[in-house]
Amino acid sequence: MLNIKVVSWALATATMISYLVCIAYGLATPMSLHMHGFLEQVLPGFEWLTWPGFLIGLIESFLYGAYAGLVYVPIYNFFHRRWGSE
Fold this sequence. Notes:
The chain is mainly alpha-helical. The chain is about 75% helix and about 0% strand.
């Protein structure tokens, strides 16, 4: 059985770190190689190289990870109770 709090926090932190890595990669590479267009599509309110856009993206990334944990854990636990090893 998975703990919903642990998994949600872990996924939220992982997606936030991934967002920060994407931003760092975008700053370190030429414009043609990074994915700011993708981030603008996936994260509503995100704008490349603005403080409000950066913070909105950071918060949304965290929330997407938390949402994934909140959805995944109950489904996993349901199937684990039903068909998991005893």
